[in-house]
Amino acid sequence: GCVVHTYGIPGFHWGAPGTAGVTARCFCNVLFGPPGTKENLRMEGIELRKVVVKSKRSIETEPNQLFTKMIRKCHLVYVEKETPAHVYQFVMEHTPFRYEFSVWNERKEPARVVFRVFLAPFRYKNENDLDCRRNDFIELDRFVEEIGGGEEKTVTRESKDSSVLLPPGVTVEEILAGDKGDGAPCGCGWPRNLLIPRGTRHGMRTQLYVLLTDWNEDAACPELTQLKASVSYCGKQGSKYPDKRPMGFPFDRPLPWKTLDDMILGVKNSSVTDVTITRMIGYNECALL
């Protein structure tokens, strides 16, 4: 039931310059039921006031700017028992970044909130029909946070902790040091170096959409307090899929708004932020792997 969307948008794909790369993720966007309703998206008493994305570059940059680059990795292999050879591989990486969400809980009691983070290419007003545009959105992250009653809280989240990414494997150095980790990952998840599209040299305009919903209502297992590893795409081994909402929610079905801006105005527990993704020129060499 997954549909792979290909975008005719420069930079909104994953791969090396000059190659087709991967044009889009496998995005589960099947009509599971009736069209979405306003009440189904709203979380009364919760307001998402601001979203900022900050890149962790060595030089200071303006907020809401992300960066990708090509890195040359060098692998040491043995053609024969005692004949080492260096194999070079070019891969795309993104500069690590973090989200900062400003959330206001006007309720008297604490609220367990699930943050649903999506990215889509920027569209002009004449291309902004939400019924068509909902197919543009890819999920970047999903996680749970508690907001105290009557509290305005700034929630931070690191890009490396995304719930769509393949769990990190154990390195050779860790194995040699006797650390075997928590066991080999299942192999399910999005590649860790391809969380965001590669962007363009002059900066590709995108929009980051965030929706907050009530985890007390959405959790398939009430005792589950966090969404870790690649759970958004792969679920949790040996148990139910932890989220009662369908994959791709809220973009898995038609919505009762004409445009994304209308949707934001009608749902105060959501927000949209313009983000630029710039592909840096040149290849950076990394250490011998």
In a few lines, what is going on in this structure?
This protein is mainly β. Helix content is 10%, strand content 38%.
Question: What are the main properties of this structure?
Answer:
10% helix; three-stranded antiparallel β-sheet; six-stranded mixed β-sheet; globular; mainly beta; 289 residues; 6 helices; disordered N terminus; 38% strand; disordered C terminus
Major sheet summary line = 6 strands, mixed
> Which range does the strand content fall in?
35-45%
Instruction: List unreliable stretches of 5+ residues.
Output: 1-8, 16-24, 26-31, 285-289
Query: How big is the Rg?
Result: 20 Å
**Number of strand segments:** 11
Query: What class do helices, strands and sheet pairing give?
Result: mainly beta
Number of helices: 6
What's the overall geometry? globular
**Helical content (DSSP H or I, runs of 4+):** under 10%
H and E order = EEHEEEEEHEEHEHHHE
Strand adjacency order, main sheet: 5-4-11-10-7-8
